[in-house]
Structures are given as C-alpha cells and as structure tokens.
C-alpha cells in the first residue's frame, strides 16, 4: 500500500451503488414484514428478516460521506452554518412530504395521524408534530423509517460543531466521541430500543457506525490501496455481513444496537473501504442501473413503506400472495421491491429533484447579500 494522498472526488459512483444496496435491503425487509401481516403468519423470519441491516450500512456510508466531502473544509461559523443548512434542507423537505402522506393514511384509515396501536386520538397529533421535527421520543415516528434520520441529524450536529475547529483537530474530536461511546458500551440504557432524548441518542452505541465510516474516509484520504487488495477487503466485508445476517438470531435482545455495530457496522466498514478503494484506484466500474437506484435511494427509503401498504391492500382484494409458502413470500417481495423502485425513480424526478432545486435557490439567495 502506497502512502500517497488520494484525490477526493466529491461524487463516488461506488458509494451510490452501496446506497442502492442498503435501501434495497430495507425494502426487502419491509416487504417480508408486510407480507406476513397480509397472510397473518409468523413464519419466514430468520434470514428472511435481516434486511434491516441495510440501516447499518447507511450509517457507515453517512459517516464516510461527511468526512469525504466536508472533513477538510476551512474552520469557521460560516462553514458550520452552511454545512448544517445543506443537511437540514436535504433531509427535512422530502421527509415532510412522506411523513405527511403516512399521517394522511392513518387519518383516512383510523381518524388520527398516528397508528392506533400506539396512540389515542388525544396523543396522535403531538406524535405527528414530533415526528415532523425528527425529535427523539423513545418510539417510532409516524413514518417508522424516520428513526434513522434522528440519528443522522444527531451526527450532523456533532460534525457541524467540529467544523468550528481546524481540520487537523476534527479526527481527534471524533475519536474522543468514539472513546466515550466505548466507555458507555455496557451502561447505555435502552440499547435495544429508541432513545428518548438527544443526549441518549448521542450516547447510543449505534453512533459508532458513523465513526466507522468517518475512519474509513480518513484512511482512504491518507492512503491509496491497490485494486486487488481493495476487492479482497470488500469480499471479506461482504462475507462477514452475510454471516451476521445468518447468525443474527443469536444477537442479545437487550443489547441489540451493540450487536449491530459488531455484526453489521464493522463489516459495512470493510465493504465501504473495499468498494470505494477499488473505485478510486481507477479500476472500479459500477452498473449504471445501480447508480440510478442509488441516486433515488433517499426517495426509495422514505416512500417504499407507503407503496407496500398500497400493494397489501390490492392483494387483499384480489387474493394474490395470500397463502403461506415460499412462492408467496418471494412473489410479494419481488413485486414489492419492483414497485417501490419504479415509484422511487419516478418520485425522484417529480418530487425530490425539484425540492433540491428549490433549496439550492433559497441557499443562493441567502448567500447573495454576503457576496454583494
């Protein structure tokens, strides 16, 4: 391995492909979950039910991206403010769209904007408001996948603070956070649940997955890895990830997040290191369709649950995929994933990209007075 500074292209096609894989894993997980609700069975769990590990890959990717894109920026209040504005305007507008649609589904179906399984009409509106804000509340938001965005916002907040100091001190700040998380490894409450405050979110062991991604980015910025070695690392990561999916039933239910870090966080770090290292070595070629799904991965992540609920209603009416069999669960999953991807690609063009353009215009207008 040669210790040469590696050029840091801001857009990595390999990263988009990994985003696609992470999103597709989550879609598969929810497809199987909703199919079980459709047929009323508790079968087809185990490895069928491990797609939630895509979230761990997402967290590692997120930590990588923050360092890769913004880790070397000049220190200052303006830099931190610009970074946080970019993140807020990237995450919230699309989240508001799909969280509101999920609330509308509950409102039309049950007469309140949150699931009646967890809330009464008296508490549902408060739940909806906190969900729109992505505020920690110790339970799933109205649109369940939003729990991961709460962690994302917590990480962005910490990284924004680190942009106030010189770039050379930022790795030390991240290491300090990692040391604190390791010291809290066996004492953090509710490690298997959802934190009810920002402090508990920042103290949760899942945050180590962001730091794994950050460490990978610093490593690849500092050293260029030969393509064969990169592929070997990626292969080890993939095998470890698959092994964790197979043996995840042995995870300690009272320490699920710590088990996720060990089983999926570390293996995701190896995958990101290997795949990105392969691309920046000049040898990486990523399938175009996978990049396109990666581009639309945020829309796919937020929209797929609604698509699957619609498909569930349709199949209930027509009596399709309603028997307990391998063909039934595979059929529903294939249709669910396909429908979710097609919907996401359309919504990416019709909703996400226009929203991004609007936020860029707002950002440009906000910056103009300072430049005049």
Automatic annotation (TrEMBL):
Residues 13-348 form the Acyltransferase domain. The chain crosses the membrane at residues 12-32, 52-70, 91-108, 142-165, 172-188, 200-220, 227-249, 261-278, 298-315, 327-351. The keyword Nucleotide-binding does not apply. The keyword Membrane applies. Pfam families: Acyl_transf_3. Signal peptide: none annotated. InterPro entries: Acyl_transf_3_dom, Acyltransferase_3. Keywords: Acyltransferase, Membrane, Transferase, Transmembrane, Transmembrane helix. GO terms for biological process: polysaccharide biosynthetic process. It comes from the Bacteria. GO terms for cellular component: membrane. One of its GO terms (molecular function) is acyltransferase activity, transferring groups other than amino-acyl groups. PANTHER family: ACETYLTRANSFERASE, BLR2367 PROTEIN. This is Acyltransferase. The lineage of its organism: Bacteria, Pseudomonadati, Pseudomonadota, Alphaproteobacteria, Maricaulales.
């Amino acid at each position: 391995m040669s210790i040469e500074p590696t050029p840091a292209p801001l857009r990595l096609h390999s990263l988009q492909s990994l985003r696609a894989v992470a999103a597709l894993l989550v879609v598969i997980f929810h497809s199987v979950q909703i199919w079980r609700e459709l047929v009323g069975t508790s079968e087809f769990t185990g490895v069928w039910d491990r797609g939630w590990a895509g979230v761990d890959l997402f967290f590692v990717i997120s930590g990588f991206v923050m360092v890769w894109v913004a880790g070397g920026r000049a220190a200052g209040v303006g830099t931190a403010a610009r970074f946080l504005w970019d993140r807020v305007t990237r995450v919230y507008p699309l989240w508001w769209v799909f969280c509101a649609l999920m609330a509308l589904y509950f409102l039309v179906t049950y007469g309140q904007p949150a699931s009646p399984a967890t809330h009464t009409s008296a508490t549902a509106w408060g739940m909806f408001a906190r969900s729109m804000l992505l505020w920690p509340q110790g339970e799933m938001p109205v649109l369940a996948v939003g729990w991961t965005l709460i962690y994302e916002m917590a990480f962005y907040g910490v990284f924004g603070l680190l942009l106030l100091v010189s770039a050379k001190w930022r790795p030390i700040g991240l290491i300090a956070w990692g040391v604190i998380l390791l010291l809290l490894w066996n004492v953090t409450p509710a490690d298997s649940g959802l934190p009810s405050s920002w402090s508990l979110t920042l103290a949760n062991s899942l945050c180590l997955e962001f730091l794994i991604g950050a460490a990978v980015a610093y490593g690849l910025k500092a050293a260029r890895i030969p393509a064969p070695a990169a592929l070997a690392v990626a292969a080890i990561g993939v095998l470890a990830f698959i092994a964790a999916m197979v043996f995840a039933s042995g995870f300690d239910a009272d320490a699920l997040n710590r088990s996720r870090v060990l089983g999926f966080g570390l293996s995701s770090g190896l995958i990101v290191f290997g795949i990105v290292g392969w691309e920046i070595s000049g040898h990486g070629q990523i399938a175009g369709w996978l990049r396109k799904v990666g581009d639309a991965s945020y829309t796919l992540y937020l929209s797929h649950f609604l698509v699957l609920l619609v498909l569930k209603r349709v199949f209930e009416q027509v009596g399709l995929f309603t028997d307990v069999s391998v063909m039934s669960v595979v059929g529903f999953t294939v249709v669910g994933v396909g429908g979710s991807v097609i919907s996401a690609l359309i919504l990416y063009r019709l909703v996400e990209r226009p929203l991004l353009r609007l936020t860029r215009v707002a950002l440009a207008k906000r910056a103009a007075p300072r430049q005049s």
